[in-house]
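Project standup — Tuesday

K.O.: blocked on the structure for the chain from last sprint. Re-posting the sequence here as requested.
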Amino acid sequence: MFKISEVVSKPVFSIYEGVRVGTVSNFILDISKKKILGFCFVDEEMEFSVGFIASKDIFSLSEALIVKNLGLTSPLSLDEQTIMNQPAISVSGEDLGKISDIFFDEKFNVLSFQTTKKIVLPAASLVRMGRDAVFFNTLEKKFVISKVKPREKIEIKDLPEIKVSILTESIPIISSNYNQESFATENKIEGEKQFKTRTEIQFPKKVGPSSEIIGKTANKTIVGLNGEVIVKDMQIITAEIYEKAQKHGVLFQLENAVS
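H.V.: unblocked you, prediction finished:
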């Protein structure tokens, strides 16, 4: 078993070139897999340039971190972890101290976390690591993170166009995307306006703008939301003006402002 605190500051050597690569400065942690992905190092001779060695490329780890060759080192392209010294909070609100150490095995699987209060928390109890805190489940029952996820809000403008299937008392009216399992085979009729019998079915007429004020002249200017002009004084009322008045909630004023 290894401890992060004992790995940081270890020298890094390459076997093939026989050179010192640098000094371990940090590590990269995969929170979801609870695994150490690799270690960051600094090269003091190259003005402290930062590099990275993946865990899978480490040949051995004891008094020093040994890598087979320099070709297995790379510039650091991942974000360095900030879990060390982060406040550890239980889901029940208990202050567990700050993360002071991490224990991991020879395959770099995280086993547990230790805090400044000398509390050892199993890796399986880790719930979430955020910007300001790390949350752990110290309850006996399992904690499911999805239960605290915010509900997604759907705005009306984002709703897709929906086609429906209607079933009357005895005659089905099936839209073009009907579910074949929703109706008995003998009552199924394809097409939006095909019916088993037509005598008892009547479709409502299309609802549109009132024809009573279309074409008439407004006798005053009417404004809607945010001061937007709906119709000007002496302007002929069109279907577009009527629909605009509906949207702005000034239809009553429009109907009472005609000559």
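K.O.: great, moving the ticket to review. The helical segments are 4-7, 239-248, 251-255. The mean pLDDT is 80.
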